[in-house]
Design goal:
The chain is built from twelve helices and no strands. It is mostly helical. It has one domain (2-250).
Length: 252
Amino acid sequence: MIFLKLTLVPFFLFAVSMAAVRWGPSVAGWLAALPIVTGPILYLLVLEQGAVFGVGAAAAALSAIFASEAFNLAYAWTCRWYHYCIAALMGLAAWFAAATGLTNMPGTPLFALGAALLGVTLAQTFLPRTHAASKVISITRTDLLLRMAAGAVLTLAVTMLSVSLGAQWSGVLSVFPLLGLILSVSSQRAYGPDFVVRLLRGMVLGRFSFAAFCLCLIWMLPRQNVEIAFLISSAAAVCVQWASRQVAAATR
């Protein structure tokens, strides 16, 4: 089990980081919205705490899309005028405020879906826009190792504290904007705020696949064994992700 905690999330963070180098910020943001961090954490939570706990955590993770978009909005607007440290603090403050509010709300799938849709709508409407061209980017080995280490630390923290945190906080923390924070800070440092805006706007498009994953998991966990439930949910996420990309390409 400890091997999975130390390797699953870092592997996916490595994949998205390489995607950013290969295809640029829009595609990296789109891929980053997949449940590449949340999925492995939820899987480990179900293995350790059971399916009922997993259903509650998946519903909380779905609602936490709202908190993630609160981070994105705060970071995107702040980074246009201020240093990345201030932008990161503002983004994390917005995330924490939204996350705290969510954990005091009903933990039902219907509420979670409503919160997620509201978050996506607000982000799509109010995120700043940019017409800057995409850039060819690079990433140092040190940055890559730090990203992977941060993913392992988050996984260990959420899974080890899950009993005391409960299903709602465990689910919300599984959607902590780790990847968004890392990519935003490193992108602002290297390429400026326009690059960050392209990245964060790309994340909005990917939220639909994340929602599909969580909804499918909520439905499947009480009815199938863990592996089948996660495989089907992951397949649903990939299908929705592919469809969202096709729709986006057709409407340009």
